[in-house]
Every structure is written in structure tokens, then in C-alpha cells.
């Protein structure tokens, strides 16, 4: 199960509405305040989503604590990654390699730059089961990048628009107030959308020499943060879309900024096919949900893109030689659900 750093737990609880006691929220997160002060501490993603859901329930329907959480972030919160961001000569340089180095602080998400005609998209996806806390975290993830941009370039900066793949969580007023641009829901993917002109604007304190120094430092210090191979990125994109049905080749090709024929050719050079990656994504997600979640077998079948539970059962038996119930039983007891 992916984990969320305690920094985000502390900041989320600090932005909870007045009158909501911190103690019960720390218990939902599974940390004491002292444990949450440890910068190396982390909690399972499911607990973090439960924490966000608890705060949102107390605040709704105009949910905005997660925007305040993101707005409280600055480059200094992210160490050398934040320094590289702030010292970049332009916003375009700031985003360079952040699809890799953001994993040091957010290992549960995948970010990717995508040129889209006259626009440039910073896309986000998280291949995990749909739930309100995950959607709140998705919104906060893109809002944090907006916060870093404003920290480096000035508080008045705003993208062309922002879009999210999920339905609105209450009203979108807090999102619009925070991003200061149109916010589209039920889109085909999560993204911050910029123009080419925005990417070329200088950062007031940017210095290319210093930026290159920090980039080299990050490469040297964190060589394990390697760029995902193309086939691995495709698997993650497919897994993130399965709850809406199995995505087609053209849809996934657009997610990685390629044409369908180009993607087929590139996968062929790796000895892979698109259908084999669909199978891999379904298999990985199915086994993770069977082992780590309390979703019913019918729900897991749906979340992995199967129209019927019987088709899902046949697929699991083909992959493992066992039924879904046997796979789940072999994984052992799961943590109790947090209400």
C-alpha cells in the first residue's frame, strides 16, 4: 500500500475547520502528534484518505481545507526539490524533471508533461480505487504545484484552467477561488493547463546556474528516482482509467502525448503490445485490491474494467490458478476500516 508523508497529515489537520478537535483526527490517521512531527514518518494512503474525508464531512458542502493545505506549502517544504523549483529561470524550467522528483514527496501519484497544441498540460493520475478522500488528495496535489509556482513567480499567477476527472465534491467555489481560473470537472484527466507564454515567463529569483546545480545535486543524491519506462507509464495510465472501462489505444496514446501509431511502434520496439499492458494493469490492480482493500468482489471486478464478476473470476484464475476469494484469503486479514 502506498504511503503519505506525515507533513501532509500535519498540514491537513492544521487546516481543519474551527471546532474540529485535532486528537480524533490524529487517531484517524493512526499517528500521535509527536509521531507526525517526524519528517520521515508516513501512513498508508487509505488512512490519509480517511483523514481527508473526516475533515471534509465536518466542513462541507463548500470544502476548502485542502486548498488551504496546499496554499500553506512553499518551496522550503520540499528541500532540494523546492530549491530547484524556485531557482529555475522560468516556470517551464521549474516543471522540468518534476515528473520524477515529485515522487520523493508524493509516491502515490504520477505526473507527466503533455504538449497539447498551443497549450501545455501538467497531468496527474493515481491508479487507486475511487473514493472521496482520493479525489480531495488529487485536487490538493495539483493545488500544491500552483502554490510552488506562486512561491517562485509571484502570488498573482494563475493557469489557463484546471480540470479534474471526478465529479464535483460539493461546490467548486473553493477550487475556483484558489486556482483563480475556470475549473472543469468530469474531464478525461486531471491537469493544470498553461499557455506557452506562461511557461516562458521568468521567475523573479530564478538563476539558471543555480538551478542546474540543484538539478545535478538531485540526480546525484537520488539516482533511484529513475524515469519510468514507456511500458510502465502505459500500465499506470491504463490502471488509472479502468474504473471507467478499459481505455482504448488512442485514449492512452493521448495521455502520453503520442499518436496511436507512434505508441504501437514504440511498444513494438520494446517487445510489448498494448493488449498485454491492459492485461498487466488489470492483473496488478486486481491483486492489490484483493489484498489491500475491503471492496467486494463485484466492486473489484468493476474497478478493474470487467462488466461481469464471472469474467473477473475467470481472469484471476488464469493469472494465478486461484479464485479471487482464495487470493484474498492468502493475503491474510486486512486492517479494519476507519469510519
From TrEMBL:
It comes from the Bacteria. Residues 232-330 form the HTH araC/xylS-type domain. Coiled coil: none annotated. Pfam families: Arabinose_bd (PF12625), HTH_18 (PF12833). One of its GO terms (cellular component) is cytosol. Keywords: DNA-binding, Transcription, Transcription regulation. The keyword Transferase does not apply. Gene3D superfamilies: Homeodomain-like. Signal peptide: none annotated. GO terms for molecular function: DNA-binding transcription factor activity; transcription cis-regulatory region binding. The keyword Transcription regulation applies. This is HTH araC/xylS-type domain-containing protein. It comes from Pacificimonas flava.
Amino acid at each position: 500500500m502506498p504511503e503519505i508523508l506525515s507533513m501532509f497529515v500535519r498540514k491537513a489537520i492544521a487546516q481543519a475547520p474551527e471546532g474540529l478537535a485535532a486528537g480524533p483526527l490524529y487517531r484517524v490517521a493512526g499517528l500521535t502528534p509527536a509521531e507526525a512531527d517526524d519528517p520521515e514518518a508516513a501512513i498508508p494512503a487509505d488512512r490519509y484518505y480517511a483523514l481527508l474525508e473526516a475533515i471534509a464531512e465536518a466542513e462541507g458542502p463548500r470544502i476548502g481545507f485542502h486548498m488551504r493545505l496546499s496554499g500553506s506549502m512553499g518551496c522550503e517544504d520540499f528541500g532540494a526539490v523546492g530549491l530547484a523549483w524556485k531557482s529555475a529561470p522560468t516556470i517551464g524550467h521549474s516543471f522540468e524533471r518534476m515528473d520524477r522528483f515529485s515522487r520523493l514527496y508524493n509516491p502515490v501519484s504520477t505526473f507527466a508533461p503533455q504538449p497539447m497544441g498551443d497549450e501545455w498540460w501538467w497531468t496527474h493520475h493515481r491508479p487507486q480505487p475511487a473514493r472521496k478522500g482520493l479525489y480531495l488528495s488529487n485536487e490538493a496535489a495539483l493545488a500544491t504545484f500552483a502554490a510552488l509556482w506562486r512561491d517562485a513567480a509571484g502570488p498573482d499567477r494563475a493557469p489557463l484552467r484546471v480540470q479534474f476527472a471526478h465529479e464535483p465534491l460539493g461546490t467548486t467555489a473553493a477550487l475556483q477561488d484558489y486556482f483563480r481560473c475556470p475549473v472543469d470537472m468530469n474531464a478525461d484527466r486531471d491537469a493544470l493547463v498553461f499557455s506557452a507564454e506562461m511557461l516562458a515567463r521568468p521567475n523573479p529569483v530564478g538563476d539558471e546556474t543555480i538551478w542546474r546545480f540543484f538539478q545535478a545535486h538531485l540526480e546525484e543524491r537520488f539516482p533511484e528516482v529513475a524515469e519510468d519506462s514507456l511500458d510502465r507509464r502505459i500500465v499506470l495510465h491504463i490502471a488509472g482509467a479502468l474504473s471507467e472501462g478499459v481505455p482504448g489505444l488512442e485514449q492512452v496514446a493521448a495521455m502520453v502525448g503520442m499518436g496511436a501509431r507512434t505508441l504501437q511502434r514504440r511498444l513494438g520496439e520494446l517487445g510489448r503490445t498494448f493488449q498485454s499492458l491492459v492485461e498487466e494493469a488489470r492483473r496488478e490492480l486486481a491483486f492489490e485490491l484483493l489484498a489491500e482493500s475491503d471492496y467486494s468482489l463485484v466492486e473489484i471486478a468493476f474497478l478493474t474494467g470487467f462488466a461481469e464478476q464471472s469474467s473477473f473470476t475467470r481472469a484471476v484464475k488464469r493469472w494465478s490458478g486461484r479464485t479471487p476469494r482464495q487470493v484474498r484469503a492468502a493475503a491474510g486479514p486486512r486492517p479494519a476500516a476507519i469510519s
